[in-house]
Design brief:
single chain, 821 residues, alpha+beta, 7-stranded beta/alpha barrel, Immunoglobulin-like, 4 domains, 6-stranded antiparallel sheet, 40 strands, 25% helix
Length: 821
């Protein structure tokens, strides 16, 4: 005789903010859902005894937060009573997130949820997620830090996949610091609805003209019997080891579904007939994990560590413009946090609302469900602008907070006839060797003189403490004249500088008399004894890099001058930053074509185009840096230009890729090659949510090795030297070849992918439901390449990537006489 089985059901409402309705409307729905749960529970004893045993799990704390902000004191008191009694449970996750959110903001949200339940005097240690396909390793660390010990994952394998090559199994997820979370690697978040436990279920399609009759109820119950027994038979065939199995269930089969206590009517009917064989039990999330923890005491659940790489992280590539605004908000948020202390507070009210907006943009829903099928639809565009507004509002609020912080540090507003003093601020905990920038507006003067059209020989930068003249270079900018200068700042150091007028040199020069330049004023003679010329359209040499340029592709060689190591991958298919465009022709319809891609992000017949170089020009060449501009022709774009600012005295290259993207309804991708490597012993490290790992190696088995959403950047290292790429605006990278191929999940054999080609992936529109289909517009994506040595750890160099992205600060400043000595 078989052992008695138990089907544990967890009733929840999946939050998908912006997929089924307006974002603010969905907030209202979830407030009303909790209020209705309270009414249902109130009515059981006197009005609906058939609902006895009903309970409800709030999928995340965001739902609770919305309820607390939009309910009466009486409603809140009843809610808290039912939480204490265990009839309402609270998952300590905040929302179903993408990896775009960083650990600092996420930590605050987890801490807020934990503080709330502790204030009620109840022990809550569990979190659940639904729909999303993974979490960064740092996400696990942040959960553990906030007392979350259990995680229930309901992965939706549409364009994704559960880990471990098998679902419905528990495991211990070990964090980087050694903490362990108990995880149930579950099934889809509405698996319980497949059993037709909700009367008059929309899935059964057994409606008569007279309504839902008793006969039809019997027919549906018979189907329920068939499905539940078949479910356990399948588990037996797969060697399932437990005599119980959990399933999530919603009130109806839709996202943002209302709660429905009527499922208890069918559950009681089932248990009366089959309870001795298979018992159905509606439990809360905490109740399930209490049961699982007892099981863990007698079973040896496996332990895994590493990244649970998200298959759904690529939504950010469908909205590259607001994602860039979001990334800028993150950088400002971190800089402000480094400047705030007991004296300087800024605007905590703006900061808190900015955090809310950051969370809402990073939430996993990336548009309305018919975004691809009907891209012209008013509702589609309405929700798209609302989604973008979260990033825009976050940036605005955090910028205002940072402005307040800088004002406390002495930042001056626009003033007429202000003396050109500036304070340079290093907000970081490390020494920074940087290029600082001062922008002089067209109406501003230096020692009562306006800039001439020329950018040379007008002013100099003076260190006010030492009187030293600092080497500087001037360029034109949309903000006016950009004055750049090298500076070294100690941790948290503030340095005062000023601009000083220089007498112009009107000496007559007959440059054409020199042997390296003719009367045409073109300098194209190679270096010779007595004349060195290291900047040409054929190549550039600095103290740290040797760059060779090819007139057909662009960069053909990049050498670390200190070690002689070639930094370009020997198997590269394209030159660095020379774009690649893909388009999959529509043979069916716009939605079906995308669905058939599965876990590939392109079709098998995808058309792929490499950028073709049209021109190379040296735009600027001064004492600090040269600017090299490469113009390309690329399918799908009206303009594709790569501008490189190559510094002469520091080991850094800043790259800006400027794109004019055309509109296209077909599935498409745009990639920017990063074909780098540091020697034969190269390893690739990336940073996600505060955790550093080796992609395709430091991951859970069975997870995604195709692409990754990074926080700050990546580094190619041989253990002694490293080339670091800081990603300022666009966080996605792909690993390996671009061709459509069978998807290899993470396993021992996938480690070879760690040395494969890397591409930045700023744009895609492949998802068939809710991705923004129109990528058209003008874009500017920025990257910084820099070298490190002395065996610095990947953690340290990727912290430096974060500091490069965040930068140092320059503020207009009016010093006191005491400061000037």
């Amino acid at each position: 005789m078989k052992k008695k089985r138990t089907l544990y059901l967890v009733h929840h409402s999946h939050t998908d903010i912006g997929y089924t309705d307006r974002q603010e409307k969905i907030s209202r729905y979830h407030v009303d859902f909790i209020k209705s749960v309270i009414r249902f529970l109130d009515s059981i004893e006197d009005e609906h005894p058939e609902w006895h045993g009903f309970n409800y799990t709030c999928e995340n704390f965001w739902q609770v937060e919305q309820f607390l902000e939009n309910s009466t004191k009486d409603e809140q008191a009843k809610f808290e009573t039912y939480v204490r009694s265990g009839q309402i449970d609270i998952s300590l996750s905040y929302l179903n997130m993408t990896e775009l959110v960083d650990d600092a903001v996420l930590n605050k949200k987890f801490a807020k949820a934990k503080a709330y339940v502790e204030g009620l005097g109840v022990l809550k240690e569990s979190a659940m997620t639904a729909d999303i396909n993974g979490y960064s390793w740092g996400y696990a660390e942040t959960m553990a830090k906030n007392g979350i010990k259990n995680l229930y994952s309901c992965v939706h394998t549409h364009h994704g996949m559960f880990p471990l090559f098998k679902k419905q199994q528990p495991f211990w997820w070990q964090t980087e610091s050694g903490e362990k979370l108990l995880v149930w690697n579950g099934d889809h978040y509405q698996t319980g609805n497949d059993f037709l436990l909700v009367p008059n279920s929309d899935q059964s399609k057994q409606y008569g003209v007279e309504g839902y009759t008793e006969a039809e109820a019997d027919l549906q119950f018979a189907e329920t019997e068939r499905r539940i027994f078949a479910h356990f038979d399948l588990l037996d065939e797969e060697g399932y080891q437990f005599n119980y199995v959990p399933a999530m269930i919603s009130g109806i089969v839709t996202d943002n579904a209302p709660p429905n206590p009527r499922m208890m009517e069918v559950i009681h009917r089932w248990n009366a007939k089959h309870g001795q064989t298979v018992e159905l039990v509606l439990v809360t999330l905490d109740e399930f994990f209490n049961r699982l923890r007892k099981e863990a005491a007698t079973h040896d659940f496996p332990t895994y560590s590493g990244d649970w790489t998200d298959w759904w992280a690529d939504g950010v590539g469908s909205t590259p413009a607001p994602t860039k605004i979001y990334r800028d908000a993150q950088h400002k948020y971190r800089v402000a946090a480094k400047l705030v202390d007991d004296v300087i507070e800024g605007r905590p009210d703006l900061l808190a609302e900015g955090e809310n907006q950051l969370m809402m943009y990073a939430e996993h829903t990336w548009g309305y469900h018919s975004s691809v099928a009907q891209p012209w639809n008013t509702f589609v565009n309405d929700l798209d602008y609302r989604k973008a507004a979260y990033a825009i509002n976050a940036n605005s609020l955090i910028s205002r907070h940072l402005d307040d912080v800088l004002a406390s540090l002495g930042e001056e507003s626009i003033q007429m006839n202000r003396e050109p003093y500036y304070k340079i601020i290093n907000p970081h905990e490390s020494v920074r060797h940087e290029v600082a920038k001062i922008y002089v507006k067209h109406w501003e003067t230096v020692d009562d003189s306006f800039f001439s059209q020329s950018t040379e020989g007008f002013c100099e930068v003076v260190d006010c403490q030492t009187g030293e003249v600092i080497d500087s270079q001037v360029a034109n900018s949309s903000l006016g004249k950009e004055v750049s200068f090298n500076i070294t700042l100690k941790p948290k150091e503030h340095k005062l500088v000023r601009l000083r007028r220089v007498e112009p040199n009107h000496a007559y020069r007959s440059n054409w008399n020199h042997a390296h330049i003719g009367t045409d004023r073109v300098e194209d003679v190679a270096s010779y004894l007595g004349y060195e010329h290291h900047v040409t359209p054929f190549g550039i040499e600095t103290d740290h890099f040797i760059i060779e340029l090819d007139e057909k592709v662009g960069i053909s060689s990049l050498i670390d001058k200190q070690t002689g190591e070639e930094l370009l991958h020997p198997e590269r298919k394209q030159a660095p930053f020379a774009g690649v465009y893909e388009r999959t022709p529509i043979k069916t319809d716009a939605c079906t074509e995308r669905r058939l891609m599965g876990r590939n992000r392109k079709g098998r017949v995808a058309q792929r185009y490499d950028a073709k170089l049209k021109d190379i020009q040296v735009k600027e060449n001064g004492c600090l840096y040269s600017v090299l501009e490469m113009s390309y022709e690329l399918e799908g774009t009206g303009m594709y230009t790569v501008s490189m600012r190559i510094y002469k005295n520091i080991p850094r290259i800043d790259v800006t890729v400027r794109i004019s993207k055309n509109n296209e309804w077909a599935p498409e991708n745009l990639y920017i090659p990063l074909p780098f490597k540091y020697g034969a012993d190269n390893e690739l490290y990336i940073e996600k949510s505060g955790t550093v790992l080796r992609p395709a190696i430091d991951q859970l088995p069975g997870t995604n090795t195709e692409f990754y959403l990074l926080d700050n950047g990546l580094t190619f290292t041989n253990g002694k030297n490293s080339l670091v790429v800081a990603l300022k605006d666009t966080p996605l990278i792909t690993l390996g070849g671009l061709e459509s191929h069978p998807i290899e999940l993470c396993q021992l054999s996938s480690a070879v992918k760690n040395n494969e080609l890397v591409y930045s992936w700023p744009m895609n529109n492949f998802w068939e439901t809710n991705f923004k289909v129109d990528l058209a517009g003008f874009y500017e994506f920025r990257y910084s390449l820099f070298l490190t040595a002395h065996s610095e750890s990947p953690e340290k160099v990727l912290t430096e990537a974060a500091e490069v992205n965040e930068g140092i600060l320059t503020i207009d400043y009016n010093p006191s006489p005491e400061e000037l000595g």
